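User: What would this chain look like folded?
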Amino acid sequence: MAKILIIEDEQAIQRMIEYDLSQIGYEVDSALDGFEGYKKASTKHYDIVLLDLMLPNMDGMEICKKLREEGNDVYIIMLTALDDEYNVIKGFDVGADDYIKKPFSPRELLARIKAGLRRQGLMKNDDILYYNDLKLVQSSYEVYRNDEKIDLTLKEFELLLYLLKNKGKALSRDQLLTNLWGFSYDGDSRVVDVHIFKLRDKIDPDANHIKTVRGIGYKLV
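Assistant: Here's the prediction, encoded as structure tokens.
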């Protein structure tokens, strides 16, 4: 499930959002302070940041601007009670992806979050997932680059899919073995390295996306 960071100083609103999203199954983190929220957003991986505009210590505009300047492309939805055109335009100018005006309903917020996840290829959309120029069709175990089919073995496809669903996370070899080969597998752990090597050769020969995490395993960035 997607990981969402809530940066909101009104505790009642934060708790309401956190409860609603947790009930659906999202992994939720939160911060009541602008600086704390910025530190979390800049040092941890999130799929969505819900960012209040008016915050103590560091406001939402400054947080958004700093994250973009650092190359952080996390999907940012501004939460604002300021509905004037100037603030909306300024929010988009500093890098916000969407905004929602307070007060908002849980259904409206969820719709915005789902739209953001779809744009990142992190939700099923008719059984299809997207990552950069790749398209994964889960039901048929097929992968395409710009509509040209890439031939992957079943295990290579499962490995790519698992990396995609855990994008940004450092995954150990043991974790990959357990989830893709099963608890009963008692073979050599180097089988993971062999499959990563073959997968890279087919979709990422320069290792720009499937990164080796020294001493741990691999992650998709």
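The CA atoms of residues 212 and 218 lie 5 Å apart. If you want, I can go into more detail on any region.
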